[in-house]
Amino acid sequence: MSAINFEITDQRLKEYEENGFIIIRNFFDEEEVRKMKKCFEETEEMANQKISLEDGLGRNVDITVWNSPGSDVTGMAARSEKVVNAAEKLLGNLEVYHYHGKLVQKEPKSGGSWLWHQDYGYWYRNGCLFPEMLTVFMAVDKCDKTNGCLKVLKGSHKCGRIDHSMVAGQTGANIDRVSELKKKLEVVFVELNPGDVLMFGCNLLHCSGPNNSDRRRWAYLMCYNTRHNNPVKVHHHPCYTPLQKVPNSAIKECENYTDFSGKAFMDKNVNQTIKFYKTQS
To answer: Which residues have a Cβ under 8 Å from the Cβ of 126 and sit 6 or more positions away?
Structure first.
């Protein structure tokens, strides 16, 4: 059953505040997932804009990143009331805007790892003064332990921002700090079916292992910032830009799979952040 009219209840809000994340099963139904997969799989632009980041362990993780949601099917999902309203409720009933979206691609037998990190480890450097940010992680493919699903450290958001440093092409949290926290907090493997989502705050520690299976592991991440937290400097992601919500029905009604006008893909050849990553690897 689809969560087309999903709303954050007080119970789910309490769970998010206590654990730093919530999992919502069947948030997008089969048709919604199928339409998004068509955007991701059948358009050259998604593949052409792919960036490979080294994980420091001999493998790469591929990502395609864009700043504006756009008017294609994936943009309708990122602008849908059920997603945006949930983000606003979880972030204290504050207005949010689309900070960026990305497709994370771990290919069979070769997909790399994401090191333990907080998203705020990255975003703090972008001039975002407050951790009023979150990610909606949607499983495009089945995500499980064998193909490198996410692992989260339950309750780690309460530790505040941890120091991060460059490791190959990624920003990793201080490994000694993480090791001590793992002695006190539960590591949760976030196994998801296509259409399930994980909503998590920007200070939650998370990572993922390599994809050693013969199955692909793709995920669509929609990231949001609050208007109140408008970054204090211009950087490679947008400052506050009003977000035009659409009805949940817009996902199924949309037939735009190829026109990505205004989506503002991150250019791996000119983006300063990517250049910085590569010089550090």
So the answer is: 231, 233, 235, 236, 237
Residue 123 · residue 202 · CB < 8 Å: yes
Q: Which secondary-structure segment (H or E) carries 183? A: helix 175-184
Per-residue pLDDT tens listing for the chain (281 residues): 446 678 999 999 999 999 999 999 999 999 999 999 999 999 888 888 999 888 777 888 899 999 999 999 999 999 999 999 999 999 999 999 999 999 999 999 998 888 899 999 999 999 999 999 999 999 999 999 999 999 999 999 999 999 887 666 677 788 899 999 999 999 999 999 999 999 999 999 999 999 999 999 999 999 999 999 999 999 999 999 999 999 999 999 999 999 999 999 998 765 544 444 443 33
CA distance readout (Å), 107 to 25, 37, 214, 277 = 24, 15, 8, 21
Query: In whole angstroms, what is the distance from residue 256 CA to residue 246 CA?
Result: 15
- The full length of the chain comes to 281
Amino acid at 45: E
Question: What is the rounded CA–CA span in Å between residue 89 and residue 34?
Answer: 27
Q: Which two tokens stand for residue 62?
A: 């591929």
Q: Cα–chain-centroid distance for residue 159?
A: 21
β-sheet bridge partners, residue 62: 52, 105
